[in-house]
Amino acid sequence: MKFYDFTAKKMNGIEVKMDEYKGKVLLVVNTASKCGFTPQLAELEQMYKDYKDKGFEILGFPCNQFANQDPGSNKEISDFCLINYGVTFTMF
Q: Selecting from 3.40.30.10, 3.60.120.10, 3.40.50.1970, 3.40.720.10, what CATH number does the domain 3-91 have?
């Protein structure tokens, strides 16, 4: 399979086909709210704000597989990212 063949659910449960992002520059990131690198979310958000009008998208995928660093619900994770780092890029 190719990247554009996949689908994923946004935090709000809406399923998105990755082919909706064709023609854009994508940065797909693994996020974890309890990781030591979590402050990078602020830098990612700034990059997103700087370039989103030029066809740049960041797709965040929370992951709890590595040392249980993102154990919350979708709402908890989404709220944490927004409140603490102002994240407005798409989270899945």
A: 3.40.30.10
